[in-house]
Amino acid sequence: MTRSINWRWWLAAFAYWALSGLAAASEAHDVGGATWEHALLTWGSSNVLWTPITIAILWFGLRFPLERRHLTSRVTLHVAGALAVSLFRATVIFLTEPWVGWYSQPPAFLDVLAHALLYNPFIYLTILGVAHAVYYADQVRLRDTQLARAQLHVLKAQLHPHFLFNALNSISAMVHRDPRGSERMIARLSALLRGTLDAATREEVTLQDELRTLQLYLDIQGVRFADRLTVTQDIAPETLAAHVPHLVLQPLVENAIQHGIAPRSAPGTVTVAARREGPALLLEVRDDGVGLNAAPAPTHASSGKGLWITRERLQQLYGTDHRLELRDAAGGGASVTLAIPFRTVPST
Question: Cα angle vertex 257, ends 293, 303, to 5°?
């Protein structure tokens, strides 16, 4: 994909050539004895004339970079481009000679062209080198982006079977004890898988969509735990449009249920909260279960695969611009807090 040439490119090119022309005019005045008016008119105009040519060369270089598979044809194109630039500048300078006075004596066109061919191809090659530096920097950035996306897809692919395995485990535990309940769980699992497949190509969804997906999972767990599990939500309305990683809440809630509520016989509550705090979206999943210290270390959320995958996905999506904390909740139980950038458009 060719990088678009915007006004910043034009501004940078004009600034460079204007300063270069000013320096050349100063030298012509101090060393050559030319008047400031004539020096600025000739050297300033000559350099500023390179501004549109520079933009054209940059675009041409980005559109037709020197690559191994097209090397011969691209070299031919750029040789032709250098000759065309030389011819263009020679023509402009020759035609404007009567008004500007580039030379002390009116020159022949071939003399102007010979002078242009002597210097202009080197300037063309320099600008072409800048275009290639930009092009290959873009290629490296594109490969890094593609690699990050591939890693995200791998992590998400790991999350799906991990969740499916746990859901099927819950169903199998009820097949003989509660056949009707297991049938309801299978129906809800079907709906949940259909929803996750619909969003398979998206790394981020709105929080509202994420909560809908979470509810399908909670319906499955509600059949299994019956009156032992209560789930409450404390969602600030302005956060519903914020974009979050798809399936980011499910593994956090799963860990709260499996390692906070399930190990004890008493009923328990899991709370899902969301609020905006400055530029950050804060998501929290807390339970009033056994807590971090009481849970067996190898099986608690801190070592759960779902939480590990979540950490890796957040690192890939947001780099250092995120926070995930696991701690004991006030009043008992455990809490996982997640902070990510608040935005209402998905990341690119």
Answer: 50
Q: How many residues does the chain have?
A: 348
The residues facing 340 across adjacent strands are: 281
68: pLDDT strictly greater than 80: yes
Pick 116 or 2 by higher pLDDT.
Answer: 116
Which ranges in the chain are annotated with CATH 3.30.565.10?
Answer: 173-341
Q: Which residue has the higher pLDDT, 176 or 12?
A: 12
CB 251, CB 159: distance < 8 Å: yes
* pLDDT at position 299: 40
**Structure tokens given for 175:** 């097949």
Q: Look up residue 124 and give its two tokens.
A: 């063309």
Please tell me the distance from the alpha carbon of residue 87 to that of residue 85, in angstroms, as a whole number. 5
Whether residue 156 has pLDDT greater than 60: no
Cα dihedral across residues 106, 109, 114, 119: positive or negative: positive
Interatomic CA distance for residues 264 and 332, integer angstroms: 13
Which residues lie closer than 8 Å to 220 by C-beta, 6 or more apart? Answer: 167, 170, 171, 185, 188, 189, 192
Residue 310 has a pLDDT of 82
Q: Does the structure show a pLDDT above 50 at 298?
A: no
- Joined together, the tokens standing for residue 148 give 């990050």
- Residue 285: per-residue pLDDT: 94
Eight-class DSSP state of 238: G
What are the two backbone dihedrals, phi and then psi, of residue 85, each rounded to the nearest 5 degrees? Answer: -65, -45
* CB-CB contact of 138 with 3 (8 Å): yes
Place of tokens 């746990």: 166
> Which CATH number does 173-341 carry?
3.30.565.10
| Contacts (Cβ under 8 Å, ≥6 apart) of 203 | 149, 152, 156, 245, 246, 317, 346, 347
> Taking the CA atoms of the chain, what radius of gyration do you get in angstroms?
33
Cβ atoms < 10 Å from Cβ of 137: 11
- pLDDT-derived band at 65, boundaries 50, 70, 90: very high
Contacts of 31 (CB under 8 A, 6+ apart): none
